Amino acid sequence: MRRSRTALVLAVVLATALPAGCAAGPAEEPGRTTLTVGVFGAFGLKEAGLYDAYTRLHPEIAVRQTSIERNENYYPQLLTHLVSDSGLADVQAVEVNNIAEITTTQGHRLVDLGAVPGVDKSAFLPWKWAQGTDRNGRTVALGTDIGPQAVCYRKDLFARAGLPTDRAAVGRLWAGDWKKYLDTGRRFKARAPKGVAFVDSAAGVMAAITGSSPVRFYDTRGEIVYKDNPAVKRAWDLAAAFAGEGLTARLQQFTPAWDQAYAGARFATVSCPAWMLGYIQDKAGPAGRGAWDVAAAPRPGNWGGSFLVVPSAGRHRAEAAKLVAWLTAPAQQATLFARRGSFPSSSAALARPAVAEARHPYFGGAPVGALFAAAARGVPVAVTGPKDAVIAQNLADIGMLQVDQKGRPPRAGWDAAVKSIDNALDR
């Protein structure tokens, strides 16, 4: 997830975000224990005032945060520090694409947070709790936010193509089956406004379909199985059909061209995790207000989210574990959503009014709290592996991008992706 670019997800609805800061925090003070927290991007905890709230409750504690802007720079440093047992903050953030590698290879270097007083397994969504649990049953990472998926769509373009515009009716068009999403795209294309595609990219479709499957790139034994997994093959084939039938705008996500396409209304739908609402609002601008809406995805899935861990080599393990337990408790997750738009991984937080009753005026007053909560509860407990991110990126950027933008046959794109993945994994 591009956290640094999307941290203000729903903040326009729920509160005014504070300016992001990288390293400033309470200075060392005599008689106080200073806990250090290492994060990437505008993580939100500091900006939401949670550190200040904790230190008011615990005046003997000070909290100092450091941040590296991009996770691709932050994560390799975190791995290096964990392996060497040095240079670590008391609390470290971990992005969801890296959590399987952390629990698999570094779990023994982390504190068992599931055993910390006050941590309640039942307060978390089961699949999120499972992601932070290692193979020995130790829960070494507690979830902060998640990215339950919906489909964002432009009502004005749907109307011009003769499709329903009410979000419930739109959701029924493809309810239960991603193939129905493809069928809707065909209906849209038949009467679409000139120059407008049904969806932004084939790779985005593939990622959304894959994200709604319980078994993706690894099996329960930890073996890489994506080449033979019917769920991955189905996702590939459906996404390739979008490309082959001319239903995509042939864009690559998170590029300037993709950003400009929002402003130009060049596509009608996009797979849309909760954190992307702020991104769409930013890129589509005032002209998109009221034109965009949100409907349930064909099947629940997740894209994005993060965790907090406590390294065993940290100076203040017990105090740090208490801080993490408090930061990830339902009340604080609800506050983080209300002030920063980070969707809670706590099932208990989903029922709180600040979440359950949240609406987004930019998206026509869509009941985003209830909609994304329903998606979050339906996400399957998925098998994750240490190189999920590598496999997913190559399938998208090496394989499907060639099919979508260059018109290469799906098999050729698949073979190119597999070759790149094998090279990356030294297979």
Brief synopsis:
The model is unreliable at 1-26 (pLDDT under 50). Strands 1, 2, 3, 4, 5, 6, 7, 8 and 9 form a 9-stranded mixed sheet that branches.
Tally of DSSP helical segments? 20
Structural class: alpha/beta
Terminal CA distance reads 27 Å
Poorly predicted tracts of residues: 1-26
What's the domain count? 2
Sketch the topology as an H/E string, one letter per element.
Answer: HHEHEHEHHEHHHEHHHEHEEHHEHHHHH
CATH superfamily of the largest domain, by name, is: Periplasmic binding protein-like II
- The value of Rg in angstroms is 21 Å
What percentage of residues falls in helices of 4 or more residues? 40-55%
In round numbers, the mean pLDDT is 92
Top keywords for this entry?
D-Maltodextrin-Binding Protein, domain 2; single chain; alpha/beta; 20 helices; disordered N terminus; 427 residues
Describe this structure in words.
The protein folds into two domains: 3-146 and 304-361, Periplasmic binding protein-like II (D-Maltodextrin-Binding Protein, domain 2), CATH 3.40.190.10; 148-302 and 371-424, Periplasmic binding protein-like II (D-Maltodextrin-Binding Protein, domain 2), CATH 3.40.190. The chain is built from 20 helices and nine strands. It has helices at 3-6, 11-14, 50-57, 71-84, 96-105, 126-131, 155-160, 167-174, 178-190, 202-210, 230-244, 256-263, 276-284, 317-327, 330-340, 347-350, 353-356, 368-378, 388-406, 410-424; strands at 33-40, 61-68, 91-95, 142-154, 197-199, 267-273, 292-296, 302-309, 343-344. Strands 1, 2, 3, 4, 5, 6, 7, 8 and 9 form a nine-stranded mixed β-sheet that branches. α10 packs antiparallel against α19 (388-406) and α19 packs antiparallel against α20 (410-424).
